[in-house]
Design a protein that fits this description.
11 helices; 15% strand; 2 domains; binds 2-keto-D-gluconic acid; five-stranded parallel beta sheet; globular; 313 residues; single chain; Rossmann fold; alpha/beta
Amino acid sequence: MEKISVLITSPMNSYLEQQLDKRFNLLRLWTFPQKDEFFKEYSGSIRAVVGNRSVPNDREFIDSLLALEIVASFGVGVDQVDLACCKERGIKVTNTPDVLTDDVADLAIGLMLTTLRRICECDRYVKHGLWKTGEFKLTTKFSGKKVGIIGLGRIGTAIAKRAEAFNCPISYYSQSKKPESNYKYFPSVIELASDCDILVVACPLTEETRHIINREVIDALGPKGYLINIGRGPHIDEPELVSALVEGRIAGAGLDVFENEPHVPEELFKLDNVVLLPHVGSGTVETRNAMADLVVGNLEAHFSKKPLLTPVV
Ligand code: 8YV
């Protein structure tokens, strides 16, 4: 029986590609430089797309695939997928929640500790032989700091539980108060930012949350406040953040995501109160393998007419 044609939109993970190759006729989009020719030849046969944050699955892309039945996201964020278009065409969409929650939450705590205790700067201090010149400056304590979380979903809740272990009081903003939560709720991001030492972005990227961190929120966080972003770069008005960090209007930032990845504002490179990571939230072998298994599991379920494991649409 002819293998089902599946399109993967960018090189995400070798294990994922191996597993897909075993089961499907896997087409690697990046290996077809002539995109017009590619879609002319394959648009009538590709039944599934495997994508992630790096290549938009917008309406034009989706509508060019006439036989498309399912989009399986290799990641929990599906902001790169035009969900309305998929709903209109009856195209299923899946993602990879839960299996990456620990990694992303761990990294958020790591960014808080690294940013407040200047761990990267300390490392450079020793490696550059500067310890011989004197003791490293005093930094600021993480344990007990007030942590404000934007978005109390799977990842936001996991971050809160971790921060509680450091005796951090937890508060949050979300579209509605979570009755099951004992954390302090704020009905606006401004009010949350005004009442915390560390503000964490942990919500999905939508039109409503784009630039949820703007100049007003940054000023509410204030000169002793820290911003942590493990969500999406467009959650933050990046030029406003850069100027606030350069001008000292906030104390520091720990960023794993950026508005125009892999391009990062070079003004940040020389700042010691900023920790910059290359979008590695879920970037461990164990987690990416588990994500790959979930992508394959969803595709197998779909094509064997069984319930999807992690449906979004
Ligand atoms: C992806 C991400 O895991 O899960 C997400 O939404 O942002 C990423 O951590 C990564 O893009 C997979 O390639």
